[in-house]
Amino acid sequence: MSRLMALAHRLSRVGLVFGGILVFLAALLIGIDVLLRKFFQTSLGGADELAGYALALGTSWSLGAALLDRNHIRIDSLYTHFPRGLRLALDLFGIGLFIGFFGLIAVRGWDVVEQSWVSSSRSHTALATPTVIPQLVWFLGLVTLVLLGCALILHAALLIARGQAAAATRAISTRSAAEEVEEEVRFLKGRESGGAP
């Protein structure tokens, strides 16, 4: 199972880097477009369209890393007062709902991709982008998120079955304040020593 999670983490990192590059390029493109408008009264044309695609694609491909790194946000006012077993059950239930929700979005997303393919849809802009291209990449990001979520639930369920509830909690629960502080301290120590955290 550790190989599955190692593969899941590698895949999530690829998605995270891909998403980050897209968002960076979108910001760069918009910055160039703004400067061209300001100083040369011209525009690249289509920068807003491409930036919109980049944000959608970057988000769909980055969500898996946020899930595996436990960077997602939950409102846990009552959660912290529940017994550990109930918290773990709620975590599994919450991740299951999360994955189910994005699974439904992926199913409907495929319908959109298929319709764009069949009708040869193009954007109503100067670029006339075939919409199936960004939609397909967006859909693949959603599928990747769902697969990563399924791997995470399977991993947690196997840990629970082996009697390793604490390890399952570390895999799927939100990070505690102590974990956040510990990570920051590790990061700062890594920076001070000149090495990687």
- What is the string of helix and strand elements? HHHHHH
**Rough outline:** globular
Q: In DSSP terms, counting alpha (H) and pi (I) runs of 4 or more, how many helices?
A: 6
Report mean pLDDT, rounded to a whole number.
Answer: 91
Count of separate structural domains: 1
Largest sheet: none
Instruction: Give me the secondary-structure category.
Output: mainly alpha
Q: How far is it from the N-terminal to the C-terminal residue, by CA?
A: 26 Å
Low-confidence stretches: none
The helix content is over 70%
Strand fraction: under 5%
Computed Rg: 21 Å
Q: Would you report the number of β strands?
A: 0
Any overview of this molecule?
- The two termini are 26 Å apart.
- This protein has one domain.
- 25% of the residues are buried.
- Helix content is 77%, strand content 0%.
- Helix 2 runs parallel beside helix 4, helix 3 crosses helix 5 and helix 4 packs antiparallel against helix 5.
- It is mainly alpha-helical and 197 residues long.
- It has six helices and no strands.
Comma- or semicolon-separated keywords:
197 residues; 6 helices; 77% helix
Quick summary of this structure?
Helices cover 77% and strands 0% of the residues.
